[in-house]
Design goal:
Elements lengths: L3 H15 L1 H13 L4 H8 L3 H13 L3 E8 L8 E8 L1 H6 L3 H11 L2 H13 L1 E3 H6 L9 H17 L3 E3 L6 E2 L4 H9 L5 H4 L2 H12 L3 H4 L23 H11 L13 E4 L1 H20 L2 H14 L16 H8 L10 H11 L6 E4 L2 E4 L1 H21 L1 H13 L3 E2 H8 L3 H13 L4 E7 L2 E7 L2 H36 L4 H31 L2
Parallel strand pairs: 1-5
Antiparallel strand pairs: 1-2, 3-6, 4-6, 7-8, 9-11, 10-11
Helix pairs in contact: 1-2, 1-23, 2-4, 6-7, 7-9, 15-16, 15-19, 16-17, 16-18, 19-20, 21-22, 23-24
Length: about 525
């Protein structure tokens, strides 16, 4: 379930990008869960036409997924099918990461690929012809040459999985079969909704909506694309970008099936999040070990990347020493390493903390443990900043112990007075960073302390959403201040104030991006 401040933060993002009306519909769906159109109208108290348009905007920008859900009818009635709308919370959060996605593409491809990605990020989902329309006059060369260059770069992005075909517009979820429904009936469930929790329902819908693997990343080069567009009248006053949005929206009216003759494309957020996950894993290894370990770990990621099917993969495929070494020597830093040295680095990676597991003379990346280490490092950093060095030492002790420890034991371990130890532990407990239990033995009462990392991660994530919301509000305020000064003019004494506001805004934006990195560690990875 999405936390309180997670919902508020997502609604704030939608408000900034699409206005309060679309945000109201988004807020309703995040709080109530998937709903049919009539229920959204009832809860939001907006007209049906307005709600429908808001839903279309969210669909266009990949923040909402319509789907059909089969439900059991009453006694003597046939099963009914409901058309529901579900907000994709993760895709809403991704809207603040567009600059990170473009940075990833810029490191691998040329500027034209970056521009293609930017176009899709801006407009949501478009056909190939709609994408290329915006580049017809800006790309150098002949008309046919421009189209060919655009198609080749689009093909590169699809092949790298940065761009994909849009999901099925309205996937169908049927009731479970007799075998699947048997354990549900034993628990007393009455319908499909009884065993499909919200998170599981979202996963089922997303899986059902994904096109077959062979079609999802299939982009056919077509020399005829754009050939007829040169004949289109150029005296239209409509903006090209607006026209592309309207054309794409027309194919999604009512969230229904798009024109079968038109293939719509969008940015594949999964691939970008996977690359960012790899980056976090590499930096965690580098911080805990050294640059050589990070180089070998990066080589293992590159060697196993093609076999990764999901973002939250717990572990990689097994890799042999030779296959790892073959990947290591592809990099400039890796060419200085011998096979024996790489093996010694792998031994270090498989020791405490074990970033790599050894199974039958093969090496497997332990993504799950690596992300947990990154999460622990982040929580410890928060404790240090919030409660001080002694609290940080206590938290690390309890975190490593993984069990209840008595106050005296903690005091002795970190060489701090018992009274001061008890005071600090009490503050962390009041802040929900520790669990406390009382043990009464006769007239004596003992206080026992423990870190529940599972619950703490949820608390920390909600705090991060709260902080991100506050930062975004502050950024919006500073931006408004800049607009007022620009309206008045930046000459004279106003110039100094304007430059100061620019620095403050840059600092706030940088802080928000770093905070978003931390949010990804706890939520997306």
């Amino acid at each position: 379930m999405v936390s309180q401040y997670g919902i508020k933060y997502a609604v704030h993002i939608i408000t900034n990008h699409f206005g309060p009306l679309v945000a109201k519909v988004c807020d309703c769906l995040l709080k109530k869960g998937p709903l049919p159109l009539r229920e959204i109208v009832r809860y939001t108290e907006l007209s049906e036409t307005l709600v429908r348009n808001c839903l279309l905007v969210l669909i266009q920008h990949n923040c909402l997924q319509p789907f059909l859900l089969e439900e059991e009818g009453g006694f003597g009635e046939v099963n009914k099918v409901s058309s529901l709308y579900m907000v994709l919370f993760d895709n809403v959060l991704h809207r603040v990461r567009f600059s990170k996605f473009m940075a990833i593409v810029s490191q691998e491809f040329d500027k034209l690929c970056v521009d293609l990605i930017e176009t899709l990020l801006q407009h949501g989902r478009l056909s190939a012809e709609q994408i290329f329309d915006g580049f017809r006059d800006s790309t150098e060369g002949s008309s046919s040459g421009r189209v060919e260059a655009l198609q080749e770069n689009m093909h590169k992005l699809v092949k790298a999985r940065y761009v994909e075909r849009c999901p099925i517009s309205e996937p169908f979820l049927a009731l479970p079969s007799e075998e699947e429904a048997a354990p549900v009936r034993r628990r007393g469930a009455k319908s499909a909704k009884a065993f499909l929790e919200l998170e599981t329902l979202e996963q089922c819908v997303l899986v059902a909506a994904v096109p077959p693997e062979g079609m999802r990343f299939l982009f056919e080069l077509n020399p005829e694309i754009g050939a007829d567009r040169d004949k289109v009248e150029n005296n239209s006053s409509s903006n090209t970008g607006d026209k592309r949005k309207l054309d794409a929206l027309d194919s999604n009216i009512d969230g229904g099936v798009a024109d079968k003759q038109v293939v719509l494309w969008r940015v594949n957020f999964e691939e970008f999040i996977r690359r960012l996950r790899h980056k976090i894993c590499i930096e965690t290894v580098r911080a805990r070990l050294d640059d050589e370990a990070a180089t070998v770990f990066t080589a293992m990621l590159d060697a196993s990347r093609s076999e990764e099917k999901k973002i939250k993969t717990a572990s990689s495929v097994p890799l042999s020493e030779n296959s790892i070494y073959a990947e290591v020597i592809k990099s400039e830093k890796g060419r200085n390493m011998t096979l024996d040295y790489v093996i010694s680095v792998l031994v270090g990676l498989s020791s405490s903390p074990p970033f790599v597991r050894v199974v039958d003379n093969s090496y497997i990346i332990d993504f799950k443990h690596t992300i947990e280490v990154a999460q622990t490092d982040e929580v410890e950093s928060i404790v240090y900043k919030k409660y001080g060095k002694d609290a940080y030492r206590m938290f690390r002790l309890l975190s490593k112990a993984g069990r209840l420890l008595e106050t005296d034991k903690i005091s002795d371990s970190i060489f701090l007075e018992k009274k001061e130890t008890a005071n600090i532990l009490s503050k962390m407990w009041q802040g929900d960073y520790l669990q406390m239990e009382k043990l009464i033995a006769g007239p004596t009462q003992f206080l026992l302390w423990k870190v529940n990392m599972m619950n703490l991660r949820e608390r920390v994530l909600d705090d991060m959403f709260h902080a991100a919301l506050n930062l975004s509000l502050r950024v919006a305020y500073e931006l408004e201040q800049q607009k007022e000064i620009l309206h008045l003019g930046v000459d004279g004494p106003m110039k100094e104030k304007y430059e100061k506001l620019k620095k403050v805004r840059f600092l706030l934006e940088s802080s928000r991006m770093k905070l978003d990195d931390a949010i990804m560690i706890f939520h997306d990875f």
